[in-house]
Design brief:
This protein is an alpha+beta fold. The protein has helices spanning 23-33, 82-98, 160-164, 170-189, 193-202, and strands at residues 14-17, 41-44, 50-51, 57-58, 66-72, 105-108, 112-115, 118-130, 133-143, 210-215, 220-228, 234-238, 241-245, 250-252. It starts with 13 loop residues before the first strand and ends with a strand. The chain binds biotin. Biotin is lined by residues 22-24, 47, 50-53, 56, 58, 67-69, 112, 122-124, 140-142.
């Protein structure tokens, strides 16, 4: 596949590689060496050194899953609106997974996609910012599609095949994923922040539920997620008071 037909700009340039270390790494190289058009996709079904959040490794068995990165130029966003891009992309992956699994699909803060208590997809967005604001963004998407056995110690992985007992065509799945991303990105571009925020919370994992968390000091506490700040910090009601947590400041206890 070297282009996607049914989109306006995402995947019009679709660079598929037989093998890559990391599609995010390659997308960043494209950005540093050339001027790739918006929506350029770097894809492989055999990613050797997939990057995960907070320096972790993203496991993906060869020829089973989708690993792709999309180059975007969300210059219409201010630096303070960075999290809106996360919300739009999380929703796109949520929409994609929900086409195949109709119950229990959730967005776990900040941008993991879960089915029940298991992670089915991961997102790694790398933004390049300057004084003028947003320059570019590499949106890395890893979707567990046909993989059935996971070897690394990633917490609770699952896949579309494990959840639905079906096998999927990867080219077709990548095409659908790009369509979903474009839809949500167009919503973002037309400043529909309110809808995105509303939809994001509507599908939010543990929203308004009492559950256990661990704070940065290692203290386990009972709390209830009540929202997200514009900055992306997670708002948890803890003993009747709202506390805002950044990425590394809180862990979900299962
Ligand atoms: C996470 O830790 O949840 C984020 C995982 C992101 C994995 C994807 S796979 C495609 C892209 N290239 C990478 O190296 N990482 C992302």
């Amino acid at each position: 596949m070297n282009t996607i037909e049914d989109t306006l700009f995402i995947g019009k340039v679709f660079q598929h590689y037989n093998r890559l270390n990391s599609t995010n790494e390659t997308a960043n190289e494209y950005l540093s060496k050339s001027n790739p058009s918006e929506g350029t996709v770097i894809s492989t079904y055999n990613q050797q050194k997939g990057r995960g959040q907070i320096g972790s490794h993203w496991e993906s068995e060869a020829d089973k899953n989708i690993s792709l990165s999309i180059i975007l130029y969300p210059k219409f966003l201010t630096i303070h609106q960075q999290f809106c891009l996360n919300q739009a992309i999380s929703l796109a992956v949520f929409d994609f997974v929900s086409q195949f699994i109709d119950t229990n699909v959730k967005i776990k803060w900040p941008n993991d996609i879960y089915v029940g208590l298991k992670k089915i997809a991961g997102i790694l967005i790398q933004n390049s910012l300057s004084n003028q604001g947003f320059q570019s963004s590499v949106v890395g998407l890893g979707i567990n599609v046909n993989q059935k056995i996971f070897l690394s110690n990633a917490p609770n992985p699952t896949s579309l095949a494990l959840e639905t007992r079906q096998t999927y065509d990867l080219d077709e799945m990548a095409r659908l994923l790009c369509i979903m991303v474009e839809r949500r990105y167009l919503q973002l571009r037309s400043q529909q922040f309110h809808i995105l925020q509303q939809d994001y919370l509507h599908h939010f994992f543990r929203f308004m539920e009492d559950a256990l968390y661990k704070d940065a000091a290692g203290q386990v506490f009972n709390g209830k997620i009540v929202g997200v700040e514009d900055s992306g910090k997670l708002l948890i009601d803890r003993k009747g008071g709202q506390v805002a947590f950044a990425m590394k400041e809180v862990k979900f206890i299962f």
